[in-house]
Design brief:
By secondary structure, the chain is mainly α. The chain has one domain (24-170): Four Helix Bundle (Hemerythrin (Met), subunit A), CATH 1.20.120. It contains six helices and two strands, in the order H-H-H-H-H-E-E-H. Helix 1 (24-44) runs parallel beside helix 6.
Length: 179
């Protein structure tokens, strides 16, 4: 059973009492990911394949942002679980902007990464939120709670960028679509 459910009316998850049993940082993460899923579903539903991969501002297509959300959430979760990013994860990252995947496949990837993050967050002992975590090859140190908050804010940042890209790709008089 999924932990995250897109919002269907009413207040945003953080105001609707969603995930109330969780400590504040895991709750923030789950609410943020739910809101992101809701917005991504709404703004990608009407897109054609050409619009999905259009990059009218050079800031990334909707497709890129969806693929990046899935991959970056997975990579950040790897660090949250005290792991190291794999060669497959790095290869995925390098291919995030390659066009071709349909919107449903991309959204399914986002949902899977978000669900994994929510399952992890929901199972956390709040006492462990101060545990150190190490990011990247340089092994930059942070604490688990800050890493989880970063996953939440990163999701919101790229969700916003995906919405702007979707609006730009579907606005009459926009920059021409590639191809």
């Amino acid at each position: 059973m999924p932990i995250l459910e897109p919002v269907s009316g009413g207040p945003e998850p953080w105001l609707a009492g969603r995930h109330a049993a969780l400590a504040p940082v895991p709750r923030l993460l789950c609410c943020s990911l739910e809101l992101s899923l809701t917005d991504l579903e709404k703004w990608t539903a009407p897109l054609s394949d050409a619009e999905l991969w259009a990059d009218p501002f050079g800031a990334g297509s909707v497709g890129f942002h969806l693929r990046h959300l899935a991959g970056s959430t997975e990579r950040l979760l790897t660090y949250a679980t005290d792991g190291s990013v794999s060669a497959d994860q790095i290869a995925f990252m390098k291919a995030e902007s390659v066009p071709g995947a349909p919107v449903r496949e991309l959204l399914d990837g986002v949902r899977a990464s978000y669900e994994a993050a929510a399952v992890f967050a929901a199972a956390l002992d709040p006492a462990g939120l101060d545990a150190p975590r190490y990011i990247g090859r340089a092994r930059l140190e942070t604490v688990l709670g800050v890493l989880l908050a970063h996953i939440a804010e990163h999701a919101q940042r790229h969700t916003g960028q995906a919405i702007v890209a979707a609006k730009a790709a579907t606005t009459p008089g926009r920059a021409p679509l590639p191809g």
